[in-house]
């Protein structure tokens, strides 16, 4: 990992839009979407054979396959899964919103009606790792919101089955439908529907560059959660931080994939050097060290700031997906944080705690989008309708002002819709 100053880091910072400006990627994704829209299941089978090297007889994951997967699970895994489900559910229950109404003294009523989305699609990645945690984090908030139908799509393994850990998590979370399809073609199927897969109202869940770009292209025909980029961690650390812990946490994020970003901003040169030593020491025993080495070589940075104020200013500019505060009295410093997907306080709140177990959602804004967006939550699976009810007398009392505003905008039909009610005998 390079050791830099804040100024040199900002100068060398990558263009965050990166992959999303790839014209070849766009062309490929748009062609896939078009083929799925026109040919439906036929295109899904063809692309699964082309991209996953699997020839399927059916896209549907059967109840027998789910039961077989569950039988493969150890009691230890099932117990951990159930506890994670309980923690995630407890946290997200606090996000559930209720419809509300206000009645004034004139008999008028205003309010907001909360309605859950009817059908949601969840993309669960395959590829370099299995992600049962992604199932829980995306499905449980939707369930709590009241979504009636939840579909999971995920790429098949080389033998044509779905990862058993994913199936076990889907069963535990209460998923309604599971299909063996991944990539941009899965996003297109959820967005537009095929004879097997029903169209949904919203698509959530992370994926590779093709999945992310497909979500961007179908947005508008269907809702999406966010355009997720490579995973990120930023640690703000002072001289009190434990270099072993900091190194381990940076490594944990770098193992996601080669484009993952692991950054530490510290006020201590001694700590920076100690972290480098620890990274080399711990890396040797990690299974995914090839991926980690590439990630750290291309995107890993240790930045030495002159003060904590400068460190937090840079962290807010980066707006990381995960931000760890490994400083003295972290809770007293959290107010400095303006932009972060999730904030982890102290040496015993490592990022994997949030990934799997604590309860807050691990589907987080990446690529700097924490400047304007939030973690996935129950609020992502509902829509809100405004309620307006005025009495005749209240409308007539406000009519002159409404007409004045409408005429100022040149919208005389709007004014007319008010004027025709003046003097009317109906209630």
UniProtKB/TrEMBL annotation:
GO terms for cellular component: cytosol. Gene3D superfamilies: 1.20.5.1300, Nitrogenase molybdenum iron protein domain. Its EC number is 1.1.1.23. Its cofactor is Zn(2+). It is an enzyme of class 1 (oxidoreductase). Keywords: Amino-acid biosynthesis, Histidine biosynthesis, Metal-binding, NAD, Oxidoreductase, Zinc. InterPro entries: Ald_DH/histidinol_DH, Histidinol_DH_CS, Histidinol_DH_monofunct, Hstdl_DH. SUPFAM superfamilies: ALDH-like. Binds 1 zinc ion per subunit. GO terms for biological process: L-histidine biosynthetic process. The active site is at residues 321-322. Pfam families: Histidinol_dh (PF00815). Catalyzes the sequential NAD-dependent oxidations of L-histidinol to L-histidinaldehyde and then to L-histidine. NCBIfam families: hisD. Belongs to the histidinol dehydrogenase family. This is Histidinol dehydrogenase.
